[in-house]
Design goal:
alpha/beta, Rossmann fold, six-stranded mixed sheet, two-stranded antiparallel sheet, 7 helices, globular
Length: 205
């Protein structure tokens, strides 16, 4: 049993790009494969990214959506570290504009290795091809962040890792095209329906 294409691409490009847009079948269970046992565990995309990034050695993995604000239901210590490096007063009820500013502070730091994951990235812009002034400014900040490659030393792996940001959305055109077209720092990963072998394993599980 092998990884899905998007999973293989993530593994290949994780050290090359600073920004990943994950689109497609994002609400479905994703296969976490144990190759030594030829076994597949179905988990949410959120949990997949948590496991993958923690295995890579990221010190702080933090999720953001406009309902829950900043969160990580899998690791409270990472949330505490995020609060410490950003100085954020409240993790919930954080506006998109403020969230991007706090994310920028974290991603530009050189002490902790950081991954920021924007869930429901389609909510960052109401009409992607006709942005409001505030939305345009937000994406301009995000573009600057994508081009600003910052590395820190992982405390668990003792190796340099590039701070990264992820955008999870149903379809790529939920994001303004000028943000990712011809931007060499951005990589799009498309999650297609699971291959038959993987889908069968998920159903059995």
């Amino acid at each position: 049993m092998q990884l899905e294409k998007w999973q293989r691409d993530l593994a290949v490009y994780k050290d090359i790009h600073t920004t990943f847009i994950i689109e497609g079948n994002v609400h479905d269970k994703q296969p976490w494969i144990f190759p030594e046992d030829d076994y597949c565990e179905p988990i949410s995309l959120k949990m997949y990214l948590q496991r993958f990034l923690q295995k890579e050695g990221y010190d702080i993995i933090i999720f953001y959506n406009p309902v829950d604000g900043f969160n990580n239901p899998f690791n409270k210590i990472m949330v505490d570290r995020f609060v410490k490096i950003t100085g954020i007063n409240s993790l919930d009820n954080v506006s998109v504009c403020d969230a991007i500013s706090y994310a920028r502070t974290a991603l530009e730091g050189t002490i902790d290795t950081v991954a920021i994951i924007y869930e429901m990235a389609n909510t960052l812009a109401v009409v992607p091809d006709n942005l409001s002034d505030s939305e345009e400014k937000n994406f301009a900040k995000l573009m600057i962040m994508s081009k600003n490659s910052v590395q820190a030393i992982s405390s668990s792996k003792q190796k340099p890792l590039t701070n990264v940001q992820f955008f999870i959305t149903d379809k790529i055109n939920d994001i303004p095209a000028w943000f990712y077209v011809n931007n060499p720092y951005v990589k799009t990963l498309n999650i297609s329906k699971p291959e038959k072998e993987v889908r069968s394993s998920i159903i059995k599980s």
